[in-house]
Specification:
Keywords: Hydrolase. This is Alpha/beta fold hydrolase. GO terms for molecular function: hydrolase activity. This protein is an alpha/beta fold. It has a single domain, classed as Alpha/Beta hydrolase fold, catalytic domain (Rossmann fold, 3-Layer(aba) Sandwich), CATH 3.40.50.1820. The protein is built from 11 helices and 8 strands. Helix 3 links the parallel strand 5 and strand 6. It is globular.
């Protein structure tokens, strides 16, 4: 799969399917491969573009300068590289911060916006938690313990009832061939902490879908729904029995929400 030099990094990306372009922007510590469970469903109807954010996956160097603005500019530069004037942007978690920044600063290029399990800024509780995760990484915590601690926060209680599924998720994370470095993780954490677009939400012109996981501990639905009220042309979908990591826990339901929104628009 291709890489292209963009804004000082070699950006890795994949394109799947044909049709109207849909770019999927991953969250903290995630990359293009986090979308695998739903790529087939989406790519039957759309040209699906999945980049590795700077500081993650196969995009190098991982220790590059980073901020939400940097990642947003990378997304728009990737559209330039692909000769696409615009695309629907779907951002999950930190990727939602990136997608909002794109929609605010590049309104003509983002006609439709999908914000999944995210908010216009991070809470202080989350900032402290994410910084603790970064410290745990640097401390040499056992990797399996680190991922289990992460999963307690991003997955629902239902997920832990299936021991084999949990074991498979841990094995995938531990064996992943393109792990994120400690430095790159910390830089993404600080990029999240520095972002706040609450006073610019009214500038978002895109037709917007807000998707929440009913059991999300990091971005509870009632908080996200309240905070996104300032977006004019928006609708809300709450997925039951799922927590923060919607693409991992319920890719089918997420894909259905996305396709219905894009078909209705």
């Amino acid at each position: 799969m291709p890489k292209t030099p963009i804004n000082g990094v070699d950006l890795y990306y994949e394109c799947h399917g044909k049709g109207q372009p849909l770019m999927l922007v991953a969250g903290l510590a995630s990359d293009s491969q986090s979308w695998l469970p739903m790529l087939e469903a989406l790519s039957r109807h759309h040209l699906v573009i999945v980049p590795d954010n700077r500081g993650a996956g196969r995009t190098v160097p991982q220790d590059c300068e980073n901020s939400i603005r940097h990642m947003a500019d990378d997304c728009m530069a990737l559209l330039d590289h692909l000769q696409l004037p615009s695309a629907t942007l779907l951002g999950h978690s930190m990727g939602g911060f990136v997608a909002q920044d794109c929609a605010i600063r590049y309104p003509a290029r983002v006609p439709r916006l999908i914000l999944a399990a995210t908010a216009p800024c991070n809470s202080e509780r989350n900032n402290m938690l994410f910084r603790d995760w970064a410290r745990y990484l640097k401390s040499g915590m056992d990797p399996e313990q680190w991922f289990r601690n992460l999963y307690y926060w991003i997955l629902s209680g239902h997920f832990f009832e299936d021991r084999e599924t949990l074991k498979g998720a841990l094995r995938f994370a531990l064996d992943y061939p393109c792990p994120q470095s400690e430095t790159a993780f910390e830089k993404q954490v600080e990029a999240i902490a520095a972002f706040d677009c609450r006073d610019r939400l009214e500038d978002i012109q895109a037709v917007t879908l807000i998707i929440c996981g009913k059991e999300d501990l990091l971005f509870p639905p009632e908080v996200s729904i309240r905070d996104f009220q300032a977006i004019g042309n928006s609708s809300i979908s709450v997925i039951e029995d799922v927590a923060h990591s919607i693409p991992m826990e319920s890719p089918g339901a997420l894909a259905d929400c996305i396709l219905q929104f894009l078909d209705d628009d």
